[in-house]
Write a structure and sequence with these properties.
Strand content: 5-15%
Largest sheet: 5 strands, parallel
Low-confidence stretches: none
Distance between the termini: 32 Å
Order of helices and strands: HEHEHEEHEHEEEHEHHHHHHHHHH
Number of strands: 9
Radius of gyration: 25 Å
Number of domains: 2
Helix content: 40-55%
């Protein structure tokens, strides 16, 4: 599932208390999506990392009973919260595949029967688990088969358009967004290497964005970027920035949309439209839209879609309404 679709699916599952397992590569946003959905639903999120847990964390602590002829398992920590909560709660079992088999076996009883050693889990609790895969070189030995069968599986795929919406909402630098839109295959590396170096994925690309937002000194930026996203991404990214210096400025488009230069080739034009989308507001939309009419229709629509996704209020402007009518008319005339 793409991130946007997974978010909707999780909302549905949480409302029905269905357990969900999300397998996917590292750094693609599995736990972030769960946290985002909980925020939307205004539900408490409790996160556990079973790789550092003991089976007693989920079964309770053995303690001699009153008759001294056996032991009772006393709930504590997260288990006690899961039993006693009166409010809706999502229990996220993060990095499940890295947990020892004995811990996974304890979790198995919680998810299926919603009780363990006589301790019943509150009806308000929804179980969600996330894990990397064996091929991700993330120390995952696997998830035991009976535990997998207790979950609805929702495999998370990376999608650059969903990432772009997230990036716009989270103040990622426009030049970084432009690069990903131009080279969407570089959003995630499907084959991480053995060397001790970073590689590109949504998480590390966001780290690169943080370098910009925290004003990393220019003389450090290239090496810091390579440390964040790896040499392959870093090299192509700075090559792209060099290309961007040869493009017309957004200011030239706003000042003279009828005569401003159009970049050569769809690749560079596409990258430039992202800069235009980031600058579009109620004041600049008339002139930027005039310029967009000079571009191929698909780039015109792409730019306006990105701009209105970032600033929905633009859809109420007279320019946008006229643009919509004109684009619809052109589509029907070309059919």
């Amino acid at each position: 599932m793409k991130p946007a679709k997974l978010s909707k699916y999780l909302e549905y599952c949480i409302k029905n208390h269905y357990p969900v397992l999300i397998p996917g590569p590292p750094g693609v946003g599995k736990s972030d999506i769960v946290a985002h959905v909980c925020k939307i639903l205004k539900i408490r999120l409790l996160v556990t990392h079973p790789v550092v847990s003991d089976p007693t964390d989920y079964r309770g602590l053995p303690f001699p009973n009153k008759d001294r002829n056996g032991a009772d398992f006393l709930p504590f920590g997260d288990l006690k919260i899961l039993m006693e909560t009166k409010d809706e709660l999502v229990f996220l079992i993060d990095d499940l595949g890295q947990a020892p088999v004995s811990v996974q076996a304890s979790i198995m009883q919680l998810v299926l029967t919603r009780q363990i050693n006589g301790h019943k889990i509150s009806d308000k609790v929804t179980f969600i688990a996330a894990t990397n895969r064996k091929e991700d070189r993330a120390g995952v030995s696997g998830v035991i088969e009976p535990l997998i069968r207790r979950f609805y599986l929702a495999k998370l795929d990376v999608d650059w358009k969903d990432w772009f919406v997230w990036a716009a909402e989270n103040n990622m630098p426009p030049q970084l967004m432009s690069f990903i839109a131009w080279k969407p295959d570089l959003l995630n590396n499907p084959s991480p290497g053995k060397a001790i170096e970073n590689t590109y994925c949504p998480r590390t690309i966001a780290m690169l964005g943080q370098l910009y937002n925290s004003n990393c000194p220019d003389e450090l930026l290239k090496e810091a970027a390579e440390g964040a996203v790896g040499p392959e991404f870093s090299y192509q990214y700075f090559e792209f920035l060099d290309l961007m210096t040869s493009l017309p400025t957004v200011e030239s488009v706003i000042a003279d949309p009828d005569n401003a230069l159009i970049p050569p080739g769809n690749g560079s034009t596409y990258a430039f439209t992202i800069s235009l989308a980031n600058r579009m507001d109620e004041d600049t939309i008339p002139n930027i839209t005039k310029y967009l009419y000079r571009l191929p229709a698909e780039l015109n629509v792409c730019c306006m879609t990105m701009a209105t996704s970032k600033n929905p209020e633009l859809q109420n402007t007279e320019t946008f309404i006229k643009w919509t009518k004109k684009m619809h008319k052109n589509i029907f005339q070309n059919q």
